[in-house]
Amino acid sequence: MLVDLHAHFPMHLLPDEQQRTHDHAQAWWRQRWEAQLVRLISRFANYQGPGDTPSVTEELMSDGDVGVTLSVLYQPLDEMDLTQEYGAPPRESYFDDITAQLRTVEEYVKDHSSKVTIAHTPTELDTLLGGGVPILIHAIEGGFQLGRDAAELQRNVRALAGLGVAYVTVAHLFFRDVATNAPALPFLPDWLYHLVFPEKGKRGLTALGREVVQALVDEGILVDITHMSQASIKDVLAVLDARDPGKDVPVIATHMACRFGGLEYCFDDDTIRAVADRGGVLGCILCEHYITSGLPGGVKSFQDSVNALCRHIDKIHEATGTYDHVGVGSDLDGYIKPALPGLEHMGRMAELQKELRARYGDADAEKISSGNALRVLRAEWGRKRPRP
Fold first, then answer.
1. Mean pLDDT of the region 212-223
2. Which residues neighbour 74 within 8 Å (Cβ) at sequence distance 6 or greater?
3. Class of 2-380 per CATH?
4. pTM score, whole prediction
């Protein structure tokens, strides 16, 4: 069984007619129009399932023996809010939009309960495991969706914890007054990204970003450092070290790659070891752009893809001395097209697991496929740690 630490299941869902009955009925038409636009773009630039259909569905999860998917909630048109200046702080409406998307997923699962289910706590997860039905767990990509100030953040993060959100990827594609990010647009080299999207002298976590990290720890929601600049990663670790010098609170990186080349998005050995020192897990992304960066040759076949991916698994092992911190975070349907050949959709994950067993043996392959991710979820998800 595979636990995919980061995949965009909600990307292909549209707000349901039932959404009109909710408190946010006035936003229904806007949300539905935006979802239609995202779906249209995805058909050409994102989906890689059979016949260019979504890559992350309950049917494909079943076919590929993906038992658990950390289902990423993300509103792209809020992050790229064209009504605001670049780098503008979050707006209150973003939180309403992300919770509306969460309800869309909940309602879809309720209507398809024989094919997919949702775990909201580690206890629910353990109860559902082994039931033969793929399990979703809510996660959020983009700390800009959590609130505008400390009081709003604390209130909203507490609400998200009650709704079963397991982690938040604090940074993302563009600076929104939370944390500086690493370039993550494959069609733009890093230097050009910085030229087009300057972060206005900002460096690392902002005051709002520090409050995001603190609020997440308060409520037992894991902090995901993927997409962060090196300065932001150092700031997160400093905040955690000051609050938790015993390193009991894990930090995670759900869809990363190792730095064989020069891409800022990819992690150096020090960052890999820092995640391991806190007992976290590093989910290897399945994006061709990041996995092949700095590696000789190309990837044209499934076997090429496995070989390239395993270079990253081996690199994490070399940096940490163990396989206890390796996982898979595909980022499928997260605009990573092209994904690694042969690993373009969830239905291909059973073959990946077979290759991992052949290369690493049953025990270590089980850790990589699911064990490490489950360990971290059971340890920290929902574990409230009131601030001193």
1. 98
2. 8, 10, 11, 98, 101, 140, 141, 142, 145, 172, 334
3. alpha beta
4. 0.93
